[in-house]
Amino acid sequence: MFLINCPFCGERDQSEFSSGGEAHIVRPKQPTELSDDEWAEYLFMRKNIKGIQFERWNHAHGCRKWFNAVRDTSNDKILSVYKMGEKPPLNYK
Amino acid sequence: MPNYRINKTEYIDETKRVSFKYDGKTYFGYEGDTLASALLANGIHLVGRSFKYHRPRGIVSCGAEEPNAICQIGSKKDLTEPNVRATELELYEGLEASSQNCWPNVKFDIGGINNFISPLIPAGFYYKTFMWPKSFWKKVYEPLIRLSAGLGKSPTEPDPDIYDHKYVHYDVLVIGGGVSGIIAAKMAAKNNLKTLLVDDKKILGGSTIYQNNESIKIDDKLSSEWLKNEIQEIKKLSNLTIKTRTSIAAYHGYNFLLAKENLTDHLPEEKKKNKIRQRLWKIRAKKVVIATGSIERPLVFNNNDRPGILLSNSINKYLDYYGVTCGENIILFTNNDSAYETSISLHKKGIKNIIVDLRKSASSELIKQAESLGIKIYFNHVVTNTFGYRKINSLEIMKLSEDGNTTVGNKIRLSCDCLGMSGGWTPMVHMHTQSGGKLDFRDEDQVFLPKENSEDQISVGSCNGDFDLENIIDKTVNKINKFLDIDNQDYQDTNIICSKENDKRNIWLLPNKIPLGKTKCFIDFQNDSTAKDIKLALKEGFRSIEHVKRYTTTGMATDQGKLSNMHALGIIADTAGVKMGTLGTTTFRPPFTPLTFGTLVGRNVGKFFEVVRKTSMHEWHVENNAEFENVGQWKRPWYYPKNGENMHDAVQRESKAARDSAGILDASTLGKIDIQGTDASEFLNRVYTNAWSKLAIGKCRYGLMLNEDGMVYDDGVTTRISENHYLMTTTTGGAANVLSKLEDYLQTEWPELDVYLTSVTDHYSTASICGPNSKKILNKLFPNLDLSDENFPHMSFKEDKLKNINCRIMRISFTGELSYEINIESKYGHSLWKMCIEAGKEFNLTPYGTETMHLLRAEKGFIIVGQDTDGTMTPSDLQMDWIVSKKKYDFIGKRSLYRSDTIREDRKQLVGLLTDDPKEILEEGAQIVSDVKSKPIDMLGHVTSSYFSPNLNKSIALAVVRSGKTMKGQKLIIPMENKNINVTVSDTIFLDKENKRLNA
Ligand SMILES: [Zn+2]
């Protein structure tokens, strides 16, 4: 059970959060201009890597805010959290 | 009756005699005993039959690793527990226990015949044999195996005991209260760290607490005396909490651990009453010190499983802690120094014993002590066989060859009534690996050790592979100082004298003249797997330890291979000719010892099992006989049976009344989201498929919401309350998900929009009144409100007061009837409902439940998201193209509506079905075909909604059918178990296609 540091509320138990999958997938501004393949890329394709992963989390049973987290999936350590709209910390690739 | 209690100890209170029943017979023990020690005091070793061969089995150990002494406690239907280890169960007055794994009884066991046909039961036997013929499995094999395997009995009635959960936070958690755990806890607590020390036993002290060899001393005291002082000291520390009878069940990430505290399992029946039985501790610790110790290894030789064969250290504990000797003529078989402690202790209490040592020689102080006491030692010898059916009575030893691979010389037969085995020690690395830690293999004594200690957790003491006392204390002190970043000097001058040395001669499978195929060298006692089975698995091509484990079932019993895994690995490595460290280990999964369901569930039973949401009108529904349906967490009235009606009759009556005069539905559970902000209209444009900008203030509109994949996600009516204020309704079950989805888009994709969402589902209660007389009822309730179609048309909204309380009234319809929804603050919901009922009396206003609601909307062909849709239906599939805006540039899911797959013409599409026999009601979920003769039959779709309509006097159904849109009028077949039902594809709207009733 993770301890997650909500950027708005502080450290809380994982059970208060819901995970929203991979971060930094921006909804295309003009979906109608996209080919089926391009749209499918946005809609379906997600990374599932062993190592540093950028994820979206929602403090669902708390402040209800969405935020991003950097997690090492090999040991589940959350290395950093940052607000929506902020750039991911540079030291993680 | 024999009495093997020969030693007085401070842990057994001989003034307190305790009677208990074992397999129906009454025995006596003392307060302080475990069931196992009390049985041994009564001379009982035989406690069960082995799983596969039904061989007699005895107590092997004195702790959690026990594979054989597994019993069923109690015999009541609600209070009986299987798989309890007698070695851990504290004795109490009136305890009733029985042996498992034997039918009809422990002394005469019908399955014992398996022992003689055992050459026919090799590894994988069950996989190979019971596979064929298939039909035999359920009726013949399974009942037989279950009956004779005796996996214990579950209680058949609800557990009356009370269980508890507790959340705690500590700076430091120390697991295990042996020497190293006590030192660690003391150091942490004395340095102002809030510390919790847990130990699964009744008292602290581990195996040092009963140590009484004069050659093992700390500060000139017996190590046990020294430790008792330490324990007294730490009990005085104010920021140290000590929990005994508490075992860690699981070590999860981020130092989150689950512990089970036993509170009443050791108490007699009358003292258990009304007390919490077990408490699950949910612990968050900043740092965790693992000091779980080690367990002694058995040795693998022919017939190493007879009753009377125990681990050597367990013999020692039974003697020095419980005062019980396991025999009167004992042989200790060892490959290391530990057994000498047992031997000397036995000798001092007058128990004759001899030692068989695999080592060629050894010369520690401890061995010299044994020699000087005149204890006979056979160095460089190996036990090759044992004898005795219900208990060991003798054994054979032979000399080992130089390389240890074979035996040489003549057999020597020695008589005995007990054999102790000591194969060295296995560090308990379970906690370390559960926390995600990796292991290293130490070749010199063949043990797996915690590889790295992280900044969150550390292993100390023998679970870290430090076996001698000096090492244990020194290293623990150094490591804890570093780990906690403190500088504790308490043990700086501690003087330790330990006469034991660490050398050992490790041979996983001991040599024998008899071919392996004819021996019974047990590795896993509980699951009856032998060295032969492991070798067979290797021969058949299995290589991975995980595969060998599953194929031979080694380590898969309730003890999870605590005694067996190392030997299995060792034999695999030896046979395959690889280094043991390269094989890895099987996964150490939680729980460490079995947990009861009660502990896991805690107080969340009965009415606390799940949150229940009730509307303000709930009490009225209860008083008026409603049957309820669970919709998510909500309790919704399902139907209101009158005068013994069944569901069908009630629903028919309710549906007819709603269309003939008036019906009333509690619609409070519909999700309600308050939307405000200058961009509210734009936001709705983006989340719904239809256009919202032009919706006038005071008007309502139905909306369909898609997922980004184009599939229908939710629907509902949204009302424009004012320029920048809307009230959205969602499906009952979808409310929470819709809100979080909308928040997601607002916060992450469209942060530029000025929109605020608030869930107001619980703020308002809703009574929905429909039917041709609904307007008259509304007029009685709101006499000042102009209800004319001109002033208050369909799909519009008004505010008015009911006895000075504000109401929001929407004229919207989910039934196709003239219909009004009255929303009022929840605290007035019950009054509102009662006033509606009162006002509606003269019009036969009939309360109806969800079933009637479903029927009425089906007559009109309105979909229910989640019933007629399943996450694969587009608006077009539902024949709802009319609600998808062609003009809007974008909305959630729009682009997906013309992906190659979503524009396929042969997708499953919503249609109506009419049965040829109007009385025949289809089953929801039934498959639809066009031809029952072809093979395989082509499945076209399935029925999603089906009812008998009292208003049409015929059966109606909605269904999804491949290319259904083009099939109107076509005949299809619903094949059922006993018949084929003929149906015709129809329009989805069965009643009032012209919508006349909306303005009736
Ligand atoms: Zn938060």
| End-to-end distance of chain A | 25 Å
Strand content of chain A: 35-45%
The proportion of residues forming helix of chain B, as a percent range, comes to 10-25%
Give me the Rg of chain A, rounded: 14 Å
Number of domains of chain A: 1
Strand content of chain B: 25-35%
CATH class annotation of the largest domain in chain B: Alpha Beta
Give the overall silhouette of chain A: globular
CATH topology of the largest domain in chain B: FAD/NAD(P)-binding domain
Features:
heterodimer; A: 93 residues; mainly beta; Folate-binding fold; 1 helix; 6 strands; B: alpha+beta; Ubiquitin-like (UB roll); FAD/NAD(P)-binding domain; 5 domains; seven-stranded mixed sheet; 23 helices; 50 strands; binds zinc ion
Give a written overview of the molecule.
- The complex is a heterodimer of chains A (93) and B (1000).
- Chain A has 93 residues and is mainly β.
- Chain A has a single domain (3-23, 33-83), classed as Folate-binding superfamily (Folate-binding fold), CATH 3.30.2270.
- Chain A is built from 1 helix and 6 strands; from the N terminus they run βββαβββ.
- Chain A has one helix at residues 36-44; strands at residues 3-6, 10-13, 18-22, 52-58, 66-72, 77-83.
- In chain A, the strands form 2 sheets. In chain A, strands 3-4-5-6 form a 4-stranded antiparallel β-sheet, with no helix packed on it. In chain A, strands 1-2 form a two-stranded antiparallel sheet.
- Chain A is globular and about 40 Å long.
- The two termini of chain A are 25 Å apart.
- The mean pLDDT of chain A is 93.
- Chain B has 1000 residues and is of the alpha+beta class.
- Chain B folds into 5 domains: 1-159, Roll (Ubiquitin-like (UB roll)), CATH 3.10.20; 162-294 and 427-497, FAD/NAD(P)-binding domain; 298-423, FAD/NAD(P)-binding domain (3-Layer(bba) Sandwich); 666-699 and 713-856, 2-Layer Sandwich (Gyrase A, domain 2); 905-999, Aminomethyltransferase beta-barrel domains (Elongation Factor Tu (Ef-tu), domain 3), CATH 2.40.30.110.
- Helix content of chain B is 22%, strand content 28%.
- Chain B is built from 23 helices and 50 strands.
- In chain B, strands 8, 9, 12, 13, 14, 15 and 28 form a 7-stranded mixed β-sheet that branches.
- In chain B, a hairpin with a 4-residue loop joins strand 26 (439-442) and strand 27.
- In chain B, helix 5 (179-190) packs parallel to helix 6 (223-235), helix 5 (179-190) packs parallel to helix 12 and helix 18 packs across helix 23 (850-859).
- The longest helix of chain B is centred in the first third of the chain and has 16 residues, at 134-149.
- Chain B is elongated and about 115 Å long.
- The relative contact order of chain B is 0.07.
- The mean pLDDT of chain B is 92.
- The complex binds zinc ion.
- Zinc ion is lined by residues 6, 8-9, 59, 62-63, 65 of chain A.
